[in-house]
Design goal:
Blueprint (H helix, E strand, L loop, with lengths): L1 E7 L17 H9 L6 H15 L3 E5 L6 H6 L5 E2 L10 H13 L4 E6 L1 H11 L5 E5 L13 H12 L6 E10 L1 H5 L5 E11 L13 H17 L5 E4 L3 H8 L11 E4 L2 E4 L4 H8 L7 E6 L6 E3 L8 H7 L4 E4 L2 H6 L5 E3 L4 H7 L1 E8 L2 E8 L1
């Protein structure tokens, strides 16, 4: 029987919906909880494990106690072997590193971990390319290429690999992370921290995030002009994070939050750096029935919801409505996807399915393309 080592960062992604742009550090986690955030990583892990069990029932899980893996494994129907020597309670980077070292020493066939780029860094610092790994995406920021495209796809990839699928090869993928303090100040400072070896199946894994080129930036003003020309009087426009969407505010001489969510109405800024609670209150009040969301595509990955814009939650999307969502991206960014679909991962299966299908993408002034959205 194949052995899967499981490590869960139960607080991963907790800062997303409340607009904290990350979850690293005890003070950020405490602040997120005080703002009403709740841990969502455990639910994503359970989804991945349940699908893995459906696909391959011959897997033994070795994991950490409590919320670091045992609770999720049992909830998914497994009877895991629980590691000694790992603390229960306020999970830290040291706990993740200690668990990684123990699982490496046990020569498990695959280490699966749940978190974001910070968790990937912690695992990489111990494992490197020594043991195959696979991430369950649960963080706010995921620039690294070691994660499944969604919790379900991570579960499917693990089942395939541990089942001996001949279609899967092992490939070294980048572990990237950014400076969260700089991120909160609208500065992106990304760094390569190393490589880890993952079971590679293109359709199941997400790519490392790609940046914008100078040629792409030249078309942003054209996209912004197109969006502004479509705006209706007294309607609210919720502008998602990104350099492409930022151009919409800049063309109107409005201050923009590069990595946050802003709201405009009649050419004026209504909210800056809004979180999920702010948006829901607005959408259930003054903006009810007359709001729009404008989002862009993460370069190289194709995500439009669920990566870096968790403030635009399933509930926010439901209140706005699918027909009032606009996607903007340069043609170069769309071509870079090489035919892979746009992706959504809101954490709510019903809303994910609601968003799937074909959607118009605005690529420059008076130019659009129809593109598939998947989950």
């Amino acid at each position: 029987m194949k052995q899967l080592g499981l490590i869960v960062n139960p607080m991963a992604g907790i800062g997303g919906k409340v607009g904290l742009k990350g979850s690293d550090g005890d003070h950020i986690r405490s602040l997120a909880l005080s703002l009403g955030a709740r841990p969502e990583a455990p639910d994503k892990v359970i989804k991945a494990l349940k699908l893995m069990k459906e696909r391959n029932n011959e897997i033994q899980i070795i994991t950490c106690p409590g919320a670091m893996g045992e609770d999720e494994a049992r909830a998914a129907g497994y009877d895991p072997i629980v590691l000694d020597g790992i603390s229960i309670g306020n999970t830290s980077a040291a706990d993740t590193q200690a668990a990684s070292a123990i699982l490496r020493a046990k020569n498990v066939d695959l280490i699966m971990f749940a978190g974001g780029d910070g968790t990937a860094r912690d695992v990489c610092s111990v494992i490197g390319t020594g043991t195959p790994v696979l991430g369950i995406p649960a963080g706010v920021k995921i620039h690294s290429g070691v994660y499944g495209a969604s919790p379900y796809r991570a579960g499917e990839a693990a089942a395939m690999y541990l089942g001996g699928s001949g279609s899967m090869t092992l490939k070294d993928m980048e572990v990237m992370d950014i400076d969260e303090d700089a991120f909160r100040e609208d500065r992106v400072s990304a760094k390569l921290y190393g490589y880890m070896t993952v079971p590679y199946e293109r359709k199941l894994l997400q790519c490392a995030k790609a940046g914008s080129s100078m040629s792409e930036r030249a078309t942003i003003q054209s996209i912004a002009s197109d969006i502004v020309s479509r705006m209706k009087e007294d309607e609210y426009y919720i502008i998602g994070p990104g350099s492409t969407t930022r151009g919409i505010l800049e063309i109107q001489n409005l201050p923009a939050t590069l990595l946050g969510v802003d709201v405009i109405r009649n050419g004026e800024l209504v909210m800056q750096d809004a979180n999920e609670t702010d948006l829901i209150k607005l959408l259930e009040g003054d903006a009810k029935g007359r709001a729009h969301i404008i989002v862009t595509v993460i370069g190289g990955q194709g995500y439009v919801f669920g990566r870096g814009n968790q403030q635009l939650s399933a509930r926010v999307i439901e209140l706005v409505g699918k027909k009032n969502i606009d996607i903007v991206a340069t043609e170069a960014k769309m071509i870079e996807l090489d035919g892979k679909p746009l992706l959504v991962d809101t954490g709510d299966d019903r809303i994910n399915q609601y968003l799937c299908g074909y959607k118009m993408v605005i690529t420059s002034q008076n130019r659009t393309m129809v593109y598939k959205v998947s989950c």
